[in-house]
Amino acid sequence: MKRSSAVLVIFLAILMAMPVFAAGPKPTSIFLLISGSLGDKGFNDSAKAGLDMIKAKYGDKVTTKYTELGADTAKYAPSLEDAGAEGYSIVFCSNNFNSAVSEVSARYPNTLYVMYDGWITGDVANVHSIMYKNSEAGYLAGALAGIMTQAKGDAKLNADNVIGFIGGRDITGINDFLVGYISGAQKVDPSVKIIYNYVNSFTDTAKAKDQALLQFGTYKADVIYHAAGRAGLGLFDAAVETGKYAIGVDTDQAALFGNEPAKSALILTSTTKRVDLTLAGAADKFIAGAKLGGQKVYLGVADGVIAYATMNKAVPASIQKQLDAVIADIKAGKANIPSAFTMTADEINKLRDSVNAAK
Question: Taking 70 as the threshold, does the pLDDT of residue 30 lie above it?
């Protein structure tokens, strides 16, 4: 045997004797698409917090990415398309992507599209829909505002029993907060009146501030609750100018103003919607092998998803005790809370008109 041939034989023998290391499992890849932007300690920030929770728990077993798409709806379908084409395991997106998810998802059956804060029409095999009981969040805020407007001994409150609401748009998802707000307020104060406005934007803080100033001033609202996304930050500016109370939404919005005590002191609390926990929970189930596609879930107070944030010291212990009873009733199924999703437009209008402080 020639020397070169012998060397080749020895090399092949060594190579064959070497242990074979199999590649590890491919990480679960997760992409969060954000309609709007981050930074308001609200809905979108809660979704991003969920993505961070997943990464913290699973480390190198997952890859995570997010992008802020702003209000340009023309970007939604292409972004979903790109995520599917790139082979992401999970794509998280809000109900603002509903039409785009319906258009794109079927083309990428190996990607699970998790749409939160709304249900996709029909049962799509690779879409998991998460709906929150926003009416329960509104009910919690209404109960607090309704009790506070009757409270005595607080110079920031007047005797008119008027509370306010500012919504992003006159749409079903926002009206779900409002009808719950009305119901919660009426439960504790049947004579309460409510002044409400819609910003017709989820970003126009200046307009929301002007509406809040009108509600606090002309209509003498004691407390205003908002469900207006980033635009709702204008409410807190109005609260400082008038020395009146506000209630935040989705996350603890008082925490946004840690360096502005004059502002945080006027935020009685926020109603929290734990988007973070639900997205992290969906990822847990997916990684464990659960088949989530085609499922729709509806989550609220009883699931630990809708709740109050930390109460401001301006809310007396006696009132907090009353609110504990409100929560207990919801969990026990004793609270009759309407939902805009099961009401006609006429029914919503009739309910709003029945308490409208502007009439």
Answer: yes
**3-class DSSP string for the chain:** CCHHHHHHHHHHHHHHHCCCCCCCCCCEEEEEEECECCCCCCHHHHHHHHHHHHHHHHHHHEEEEEEECECCHHHHHHHHHHHHHCCCCEEEEEHHHHHHHHHHHHHCCCCEEEEECCCCCCCCCCEEEEEECHHHHHHHHHHHHHHHCCCCCCCCCCCCCEEEEEECCCCHHHHHHHHHHHHHHHHHCCCCEEEEEECCCCCCHHHHHHHHHHHHHCCCCCEEEEECHHHHHHHHHHHHHHCCEEEEEECCHHHHHCCCHHHHCCEEEEEEECHHHHHHHHHHHHHCCCCCCCCEEEECHHHCCEEECCCCCCCCHHHHHHHHHHHHHHHCCCCCCCCHHHCCHHHHHHHHHHHECCC
The domains found in the chain, sorted by start residue, are 28-132+277-287+291-299 (3.40.50.2300), 134-266+314-355 (3.40.50.2300)
The confidence score (pLDDT) of residue 8 equals 46
Kindly report the average pLDDT of the chain as a whole number.
91
pLDDT of residue 5: 55
Give whole-number Cα distances, 299 to 42, 115, 230, 339, in Å: 18, 14, 23, 13
